[in-house]
Specification:
The chain is about 25% helix and about 45% strand. The chain is α+β, with helices and mostly antiparallel strands and about 140 residues long. The chain has one domain (about 1-140): Nucleoside Triphosphate Pyrophosphohydrolase. Strands 1, 2, 3, 4, 5, 6 and 7 form a seven-stranded mixed sheet that branches. Strand 5 and strand 6 form a beta hairpin. The protein is globular, with a radius of gyration of 14 Å. The relative contact order is 0.27.
């Protein structure tokens, strides 16, 4: 079975004592219709020679225009079959924005924004991404 790896991040910020997470709505025309138009976290394939953190930083910048700081103490991994015969691993870190230049600059992102934990939990399309959000929430409760 072919293996693929992507890396992304749960980007969060606090406003008025409420924690918000960034979601993007991917609408990639290059993806099978099963995966197009879904809400989740910024993520993407690793390039040759990139570390996981470098990939996360690059994908955050490409999809959201944000510069972000990665917190490697949070790391969640999901696995699924992305296409027949293709096993995909996605690694997520936590990240905080260093700027407020939120703007979709990527052709595969239709919408993006910061949402409360409960709103994000209801908006996220795939159960595996909801599990990542839950793990992030538990991690935040221990901080």
């Amino acid at each position: 079975m072919k293996q693929e790896k992507s890396v992304g991040a749960v980007i969060y910020q606090k406003q008025n004592d409420t924690m918000y997470v960034l979601l993007v709505k991917h609408t990639a025309s290059t993806l099978p219709s099963l995966y197009a138009s879904h809400w989740g976290f910024p993520k993407g394939h690793m390039k040759d020679g990139e570390t996981e953190v470098e990939t996360a930083i690059r994908k955050i910048k490409e999809e959201t225009n944000l510069d972000a700081t990665i917190n490697q103490t949070f790391r969640a991994t999901t696995h699924y079959e992305s296409a027949p015969g293709v096993q995909k691993e996605v690694v997520y870190f936590a990240a905080t924005p260093n700027s407020e230049n939120l703007l979709s600059v990527h052709e595969d992102v239709a919408l993006l924004g910061f949402y409360s934990y409960l709103d994000a939990k209801n908006m996220i399309t795939y159960p595996s991404d909801r599990e990542v959000l839950e793990k992030w929430h538990q991690w935040m409760m221990t901080k």
